[in-house]
Batch of 3 targets.
Target 1
Amino acid sequence: MPDSIPQKRHKSPIIPYRLRRRLAPYGFLSPFLLLFAVFLIYPLIRSILMAFTQSYGPQATVFVGLENFKFLFKDSQFWRAFVNTVYFAIGAVSIQLPLSLFLALILNQRIPGRNLLRFAFFVPYLVGPVFVGIIFTLFYTPRYGLFNQTIDFLFGFGLDTRWLTNEYLVMPAIIIAATWTIVGFYMIFFLAALQSIRKELLEAAEVDGAGTLRRLWHITLPGIKPVTVFILVTSTIGAFKLFELPYILLKQNSGPNDSALTIVMYLFQTGFESGDLGYASAIGWVLVAFVVAVSYAQIRLTRTFREDA
Amino acid sequence: MSLKHRIALIFATTLVLFAACLTLLPFLWLLCASVKSNDDLFMYSFLPHNGQAWWDVEWNRLTLFNFKRLFSEFGFHRYAINSIFVSSTQTCLVVLFSSMGGFALAKYRFRGIHLIVTAMLVSMVIPGEVLLGPTYELLYKFGWLDSYKALIIPGSVSVFAMFLYRQSMLSVPNDLLDAARVDGCSEFGIYAEIVMRACKPMTGAIVLMTFMASWNAFLWPQIVLQSRENYTLPIILAQMISLYWSEYGIVMAGTVISIFPVMILFFILQKEFVGGLLSGAVKS
């Protein structure tokens, strides 16, 4: 029996070796490519076409030309959603970015238990947005919720604040919950960037008499700039896709006076609650255009910054 | 280290320590809420205690009643099993398809490779929200709506995972593969025996990323699922918090169970996860 094994190996194969090697990559790629074509390329093209139609559920579809986009620009609810989303994006990014950088700067120092601390900030990232929404729903309960109790304990006011029913407090409440989940995630990237800065550079600057702040400004911050731009762009894109958190916090609603209606929530409502997939696709493409434009602007602006400096 | 520096560091450390406690507070609170009766839930911030002394905890008032009711009245095991099945299947498919694809792109030169890579990069830039409508329509035509297939199959193609695999496979030396070929190893054997073994850390990272995304997914399941018996955990809990809003204890118990599996997986795979995460961001 043992003799039969090497014999099998040397048997001439049905497909010659060279051909086999040339065909192999297609074989490896085919399952991925099939799914890629069916569930990414096809829907992408179809979605462009759908943006020019109006539909009532997936069956009845009418071509309407540019009507969807014309309507969109006059649709006050869409603009409400747009303004809310931009508000969230600016608020969330301008808090999360400095905060995560600050945490990373401190947790990059040799302080006791820093691995444990890093872990503590990262853990909320593992909790899905729906579960975060559920936890914070109870957190924000006026009088009995822990959030107001903590604020009352620390500052002596705000026990009765109605975070989720006051139209001006809804967005700040959402920003706080979102910050809780994501800050540790960005912190990890900043930490990796900080560790890649060469130690000799910092030591040389110290020898030359540069203080902590000057070293931070002239060596550390320029050194982590690529990662900062990456986080800036990623967090902005993520912020524009806000949906689950407000949707759960406001019990599958858009909040008082549509104050927590986001672009994706509006897309979901028009496409899957009212059944107009065409209009939803149009909203989707406006979102794409906006996200691409903002990311491009962020990358360009940060680049000119570097040339000046 | 100067004295000034040291004082600043101590101050900053205290601040961060305080912030870390605040960050972990919701978890502690969630755990406490899940073992309190409905009467005690809002009476006490954390655990039921005697009068003003919070350390004098009345342990006998704690209860597993919420967990019991969750399974007996709400049939929670059904949704947990759905979630486990959907997330694990999807994770296996993503690992299989994207590693095979990544292998082809990393270790072979062939016609059409540039076109494929460009198409994938473009698809990565475009937010998935525009795909919701057409994919829904497609699954309607397939007759797949309201099924596990609708949850698993469209999500089993991950361009991001494929690029991560490609990147980590590039570092496997070609000489090793050629040596295996000379020894009579088949192309699939090279993929399965050599390359996949060398990329184990990346597989760990991708397993966690995919499982987490699938486990926590809400928007897509909310769109395609209709019948209750197909619901995943986020869907049923979202419904519970919106409809049974007085039964907070039960919802909290459900949330505790739902966030548990991802945490365990993270504990097992944390090194691989962080490594994979950073290699995707910093290098590319």
Target 2
Amino acid sequence: MSLLVFENVHKSYGETRALAGVTLAVQPGEVVGLLGPNGAGKSTLIRILMDIIRPDAGSVRVFGEAFRRAHLDRIGYLPEERGLYLKQRVVDVMVYFGVLKGLERAEARRRAQAWLARMELGHVERWRVSQLSKGMGQKVQIASVFLPDPELCVLDEPFSGLDPINVRLVQDLIGERRRAGRTTILSTHQMNQVERLCQRVALIHQGELLVEGDVRDVRERFSRPEVRVGLASGPPPPIPGVATQTDEGDGSWRLLLESGVSPARVLAALVAAGKPVERFERVLTPMEDIFIRVVQRREAA
Amino acid sequence: MNWRKARVVAVFELLSTVRSKSFLITTFGMPVFLSLYGLLVAIPGLMEVQRRGEVRVYAVVDRAGVLDLAGEVAGRPEEIPQEIRDALGQLGQAETLDAALAIRGSVIFRPVEERDEAREAVQAKAVTGAYILPADYLETGRVELLVREDAGRRARKDRDAFRGLVLDRLLAGRLPEAEAGRVRQPVADLQELALAADGQERARSVWGGLVRILLPLAFAILLMLSLIMTAGGLLQATGVEKENRVVEVLLAAASPVEILAGKLLGVGATGLLQVVVWFGMLGVMGVVMAGTLAGLGVELPWPALAIAPALFVATYFFLGSLILGTGSLGTNARESQQLGMLWSVPLVAPLIFFEVILEDPGGTIARVLSWIPFTAPVTVLMRLSVAPESIAWWEVAGILAVLVAATWGSLLLAARLFRIGLMLTGSRPKLRALLRQARLGA
């Protein structure tokens, strides 16, 4: 059973169409990448899930039921445009958000302290929010989202403003949640993060869902039949089924396969030819290229 | 609606405001400011006290021969109505009145034969001024008052003293003393009686009547004051969230109605706390004076006082939610304030009809205004205060029910406006788009 289902969701702002019949299902324990150019309708879809705005048509089902506001206590949300109460103490803000999500005050305080320690921010507990650096504030907000341990989390650009060390920290947290069976929707423009973290991807453009599926499947679908081969010496020998071979200059070669030829057959041919193979991999189109290709194709159409 | 969430928002708002320096400064600084203002206002009075016992002499040239002044004559003390004297006497302030009259100084009239002599005395500053009664005074009533060019305008009391002198002299020997007294003061002691439904007559004190009129006025002012104070806080609270973009996180955790109700309760409680602190000081004075008030025969309008808190709270929520809802449509703090405060204008509308309602508390205007949520609180208070019998209890209950229903309606409407308004960051939406969004629930 799907954890979350958007069913034919429509939304317009006056003459502007934000969503045009989006249908999307998210399974429990998945990390789903929500992609799309600016103004594609991602934020509208997220805001509809969070009941910040209402759809013109369509429905949302979550946790196996038609959406109710009470479900929001089980959903965490990190909006793209972030903010905290600048004059408040860090721990007080975290406790406030935790209590609003249904935690008891004492429990919320205990968890806030634990999360601050986890984020290496234990020393800022009593600081005013205005005293935090941008990165610190970002981490406090992420911690606030994870604090109630929501079953479903929606993170809109969670890595923006973070240094590589903290990016890794947040990646680890998302990974931990996945291993714990928690579901995450990740809205981002950082395609490498999608490839690294997400099992599934949904690409929205002009309010329509253009691409959806398993990340590897999608990349396969948009890739040519190519393999990259690293050889200890010399170029690869002529192999039946290989249309072209290109020297990539670092001891590796890119081989374009003819239709119906499997990579395994090429590898077997290389080994049979006595060539010491140091590296062999399927060349998949990066998500970034797929994104650009899909968007441009759509706009051209 | 989840009241737990509304309570969480309310506590957060309450503590945020109460802990702020500006709240402490306003709460405890305002009485200090008012005291200083009071001192400033009292300065002219203090200067008057310093002139205590000052004697002003006026020359009098009586060509008409009606005053018959043999020598200097003191002006008659000011006439104070007996009911005021009695009331002050009951307060134990009779001596204060005499002292106050003494502070106002005394006037001496000095007879002078010729106009020129009077002119010289005025010029030489030997006298404050000179009254000249021409020979045809009795026919024309014309009197000249001659003062120096650089002299300020004389106080009304000096002119009254001269009028009193002329009146006394005109009446002297022509009427018996008792009748002369009535000519001077036709109604020296007005005894006002109230005829009850059971036919009994009871004295109505000046203070009692005053309290009955002042109570609804004080209520309206108190309501306006607390609304103005708390509306600022309410609009600022939402403005900050809009500015900081915390609002999306907040809306993802609590519904607009819960946030709105929480803010109204929390920020409203701080506003009321201020009002309680300030009016508590007056309350202490009231308790101290309770015995005296009872002695004055002041009958407090208990029905009005009993219903006032319910009206206050209902009206606060009714208007507060509208102020917050419309205020959230503003694109900046000033615009929010302007939009929000529009709602407080109808509140004081009954004061425009003050006289009409006082004269006919059971009339059509009073009845109609009682059923309109905006004007109900002040009108009902006025009617209950001035003439409790003009409004039936079922009517009061019905009006309260309408007010509660209107409050709930305004809360829901405000929640929709709030939801739309908080998502706005640029320009204010057009009315048509606003209505459409409100209908769809944004």
Target 3
Amino acid sequence: MAQLAWLVPLFPLASYAVLAFRGRALGERAPYVAIGAMALSALLGWGAFLEQVAGAPPYVWRAVWAVGGERTLTVGYTVDPLSSITVAMITLVGGLIFVYSVGYMRGDPYYARFFAFLSLFCAGMLTMVLANSFLLMLIGWEIIGLCSYLLIGFYFRRRSANMAQMKAFLTTRVGDTLMLVGIMALFWQFGTVDYHAIFEAVREGGESASAVVRLGGWEVPLATLSALLVFGGPVGKSGQFPLHVWLPDAMEGPTPVSALIHAATMVAAGVYLVGRAYPLFFYTPHHEALAVVAWVGTLTALLAALMALAQDDIKRVLAYSTISQLGFMMAGLGVLGYAAGLFHLLTHAFFKALLFLAAGSVIHAVRTNNIKEMGGLRRFLPVTFWTFLAGFLALAGVFPFAGFWSKDEILLEAYHHAPAVYALLSATAFLTALYMSRLVAYTFFGTYRGPAHPEPDPWTPEDYARAGLHPPHHGHGTPHESPRVMTGPLVALAVGSLVVGFVGIPGTGPEGGSWIHHFLKFEGFKEAGIHAPSFSWPLALRSLGVALAGIAVAWLVYGLRAVPSERIRAWVGPVYPFLRNRMYIDALYGWVFVRGGLLLAAGLRWFDVHVVDGLVNLVGGVTVVTSRLHRLFDTYVVDGLVNLVGWVTRGLGLLLRPLQTGRAYNYILVAAAGLGLIVLVSLWRL
Amino acid sequence: MIGPAHYLGVSALLFGLGLYGVLTRRNAVAILMGIELMLNAANINFVAFTKFVDPTFVRGHVAALIIITLAACEAVVGLALVINAYRHLETVNVDQVNLMKG
């Protein structure tokens, strides 16, 4: 199976090609192509994964792509526990989201285009995961970024969607540029972009690995510098502080997109990359790059959780929650919890996809994103409610759901390796439970309030007419449950959100550890003598208590309304608007970068108009004056000379014309006279 | 004693007369006669120089014979031209033979 893994990204790519060229003709049948391709990928991906589970050795295939002097660029793919389990997760969650999209996007005039973009996204993501060099990874990474841009702006008639897609693209570009510089630094340092070669080099710590660069007055180890530059990519793509601003706005895309790209997989690419390139971060002096990762993650987790508290848009709350959880994963990886961070990546994919899809089902039913306009939906949407509840419990970290096991692992690692991180992450866990309970309380409990302004249709009648469809009419009074094609994936993901965590139960692996710890292990820990802390009940109970406390507080405020939220809002004063306005970070960026950029552009324009154009005009004017002078010179001097020659010739001609009589005896006379002259002269000379 | 100067004097006199005839006459036949005189002046020169400079080999005589032949040919062509001109133009006055003057 591992030998066939190269086919895994190619199926969605083929599906993309088919849908891109034949999509409109396929119409309603477009999803079959996409889902079929995804199913084939899933089959191969799971085959490879199960092979790894059974203990097959990692499979690496590489081929020379380009040769430049002594350096060669290779491409290829790796099937090892990390990549295979991620592929398995992507194909499963992605496939379920595809199925859900069949129902959610039905009747959309750009149905096939949607599935084409989703397929291309999966192709990029799978390429990125399976790649065994930074170069191929970067290719997949950029495809992911492109698809994110395309799908955020899928409702391209909406101005806000256009702004959001640009924001997402430009913000992630900042990180991507840093990463590109980082990859170049690695190539310069090690002469290769192959994962294996680079990781071996940093592990052995040879001469090239311990090089030092001077930045200003500081001596920075090159390894740390390139690791941090590479980390720029994950900061952008995984929405880490300070480049997190794009992710909440990315919710402008259709909800399945939010689930697939901005919750379950794409944003996980950054975390995956940190996991993949773990040696790069680990083998820096004192693991200093990992410390940076840990603190960026912790800060992100805490800030995003705070911001999530004050949001009213259901998808935005989930988006901030995603940022927060991604911060959790980064923090987990940063505090030497290699397996813990990646385990949380896997479980989070399931329950966050579930939460987004359930939110999509809610939005589908009530046609608004504002949780203040929902309420009491548990009676109208029973399946959505119960599945959302499963996702909520998993995210909050309640026993025995998946989030409990993975989050507990991270907290455990943090407790042992970085107590400060542990304290902040515990606070975040409390906030997570709080804002999610608030969301559930507003959405599913209480009474149905109904939207004041239902969201307008994203398309114009012309769009529908071109696709041969009729615009949908939303005339229903009460919300109703989504069709089975949408609830099916919800149920499947809800089951996943419960059982995926079971691989993290202590005792499922050898030596009393968990299975996932055994499956995803980083060899460097053993060499460095770092032991994974063993599961401890007091800590687990403490984190469970924190989660339950968060739920309880939220229940008091939003469920029972024992302390009305309005009173709390008045009590905290300016904190609420501060959080609601995203800590003014977006506004700051808007002022500094967007307005600054526009101002710079205006300044440059002024410079262009007045200075550059002025110079050009000056040159032009000088040229005109010079050419006028030149013309005068030409007319009077050059032409004058030519005319003078003409006049002289003519004058001479006039002068000599009488000599040409045409009478032979005249010529003879002259010849005779000349002869006579010659004779006289020669006589005189004698 | 008759020296080279005498010969050359006769020759120069003859040449001058011929030239004078060519320059002053308007009758084509008279001009041809003048040319004959000048050619014969040249003949006298050749013969005289043969006699005084190179009496062994009579190269000057040969040149004189060639010139006589040439003069005969010239007279034939010239007179033929004159006769044809007269037939066409009713004149042998060279001033009036100017059909080709631009």
